Amino acid sequence: MNRRTFIKRFFGSMLAFAGVSGGTYYYARDIEPALLEITKETIASKRIPKNFDNFKIVQFSDTHIGFQYTLKQLNQLVQRINRLKPDLIVFTGDLVDRPDEYSWNPRIIDILQQLQAPKGKLWIYGNHDHGGNGTLILDEVMTKAGFTLLLNEHAQVKSGRDKITIAGVDDMSLGKPDIEKALNEVPSDHFTILLSHAPDYADIAKRYPVDVQLSGHSHGGQIRLPLVGSLYTPIYATKYIKGKYPFSGKELVLYVNSGIGTTRVPYRFLCKPEVHCFTLKSADLEKEAEK
To answer: Residue 61 is part of which domain span?
Structure first.
């Protein structure tokens, strides 16, 4: 769907529910986009080592800076994330809405540098990061901000003598994702988290030894109507849009983050911006506590 078609459909829907409440437009434009929601999830698995019990991972995604999202708001977001005291921070793509048009300010690096996580900060490309010749710019910015790019590769995170694996694949739309390369030489017994900007990549990931996939891209639908759901989601975010998706008979559980900023139109309705805070739980420790 191109931008013009999307905007026509959006405003047609806006007219429909504007009749229900005259304040809906104002709420969707000025209120809900600022109502950041911290979604807390517990991930329990017998594959999680004991030294990672209560290990905290914070995910944020899709800030789309430059399109109705400012550096002041980014600074506020950083402070909120730091208050969660994460052990590890992951960013799942789309930092700036249009890298080719954005007036790059050194402050963006200074702000992202303030994010604090003792076990590191990891990130992957989103489709907007590749767009407008932004690939190299984003890599430089995020590297200076202390983030490590996972481009079809993985990192091993250590806690004591134990390790888990965080793998990352390139974006499905404008990149070349390669999960086999990303998981190359990952021990089969490692608890493994995959970062993929596109949530629908889970249909590929479920065929591999991946325990959890963290994604963004969909913005949770961004604009959702009662009984209708999301008005529009981008390609590769049409099947898995928002929330938690366990895969029956598979190890994999997918979590789709609703993102921080907005794109195409500067509105959110029934779909608040979101940060995920995951706490790992060792199932072995839980069994010991039950004895």
So the answer is: 23-282
